[in-house]
Amino acid sequence: MNLKKSILLFLFLTAGILNTHAQDKKFKIHTIAFYNVENLFDTINQSNYDEEYLPNRGWTSKKYNKKLNNLARVIAGIGVNDQQKEAPTVLGLSEVENKGVIDDLVKNPQIAGKDYGVIHYDSPDKRGIDVGLIYQKKFFKPTSSINIPLYIYSEGTATSKKDDKDSEDTDKIVTDASSKRVYTRDQLLVTGLLEGEEVHFIVNHWPSRSGGEKRSSPYREAAGRLNRKIMDSLFKINPNAKIITMGDLNDGTTNKSVKEGIGAKLKKSEVKKFGIYNPFEQMANEGHATLFYRDSGDIFDQMMVSEPYIRNDFSGWQYWKAGIYNKQFLIQTTGQYKGYPLRNSAS
User: Which residues contact 163 (CB under 8 A, 6 or more apart)?
Assistant: First the structure.
C-alpha cells in the first residue's frame, strides 16, 4: 500500500549579517519548502476531472475546510525551531486544482497573518491538478513567472496497470488518442528577489509510475531533461544563478531522471560549476523516507540547489541544511501501518 505524502520537505538558507563589531556575526534564516497537498480540490464542479471531489460524492464544504485547516497547521510549523521562528518564506505546492484553492489555503487563520502571495497557472494535466507557489510578500518579490510545458508522447496505448510503488496511485497517465501526447503537469519557474538578491525556484510534479516503473521511466527522464534545460537557460543568462528545484518527482534520488537528467550530486565536493547538489540523496542513504511501500521507504519528494548556494565565499544567501518535516501528528500511530506517513486528507 502506497501511503504518501503527508510528510514534506524544507531547507534553510542563511546570510551573514555583520553588526558594528566585526566579530559579532549573526545569521538570518529563510525556510524554503515543498508540500504535496494531495488532491486539494474545492467542491465546485468545474471540469470532467473533479467528479470524485463533489458534494454528491461525499466531498463536502465541511471536509474541504477541514483539509484546509489541516494543511495550514502543517505549513505554520514547517522548519520552526529554536533558531527559526518564521513559517516558510517560499513554499512550492503540488496537487492543487486551481488558484482558488490556494487562495483559500493562504486565507486560513493559521497562516493568514503571513500575507502569502500566490503564483499558479493551469496546466493540461488530465487529472486537473497543478503545481503552484506561495511566498511571504515582505521577504520575496517575484519579478517573473512562467509555466513550461513538458511534451511527452506514448508509444502505445495508455494503461492503468500498476506495479512496484504504484499500488494506490490515483495519478494515472492519460494520453490523447490522436496525438498520443501524455498530458501532465507543467514545470513552474519563478524568479524574484529574496530580500534583494535574485533567486529562482522551479516547482515540479513529474509523471507518475502508472503502468509500471520501467514503462513510465522515459516520461520522468524527459521531465529531468526539461528541468536541466531550464536551469541551463538560467545559467546562460547568469553563470552564478541561484536555483532551487523542488517537487514530487515520482522517482528516487538515484533514478536516471535525477542523476542523469538533472545531473544531481550526492556530495558537495562533487558539484562543479553549473552543477546541482541534492541533500536528500544522503538522507535516503541513511534510511529517511517520504513514502513507504511494503515496509520499504524512498524519497520521491526532493529539493536541490545550484552550485552557487554551496560555495564557501558566503556571498548572499547560502544553503545551510535540509530536512523532512515529520512531526508526530503526521505519522500513523496505530494499526497495520503504524509509523507510516498519514495520508493528508480531511480526517
Answer: 212, 213
Give the residue carrying C-alpha cell 512550492: 92
For residue 191, the domain's CATH number is 3.60.10.10
Closest listed residue to residue 305, CA positions, set 321, 283, 325, 326? 321
Do 42 and 60 touch, CB atoms closer than 8 A?
no
* 336 located within any domain: no
Among 26-30, 151-155, 284-288, 323-327, the least confident range = 323-327
Q: What is the pLDDT of residues 214-249, one digit of tens each?
A: 999 999 999 999 999 999 999 999 999 999 999 999
Using omega within 30 degrees of 0 as the cis cutoff, is the peptide bond preceding 5 cis? yes
User: Model-level pTM?
Assistant: 0.87
Residues in the chain: 347
Residue 55 lies in a domain: yes
* Cα 205 to Cα 186: distance, rounded to the nearest angstrom: 8
Q: Are 247 and 261 in contact (CB under 8 A)?
A: no
pLDDT tens track for 246-274: 999 999 999 999 999 999 999 999 999 99
How far from the centroid of its chain's Cα atoms is residue 319's Cα?
Answer: 17
Please give the residue range of the domain that contains residue 88.
8-330
Q: Is residue 227 part of a domain?
A: yes
Number of Cβ within 10 Å of residue 259's Cβ equals: 18
Element (H, E) at 232: helix 213-237
Task: Decide if 88 is inside a domain.
Answer: yes
Tally the domains of the chain: 1
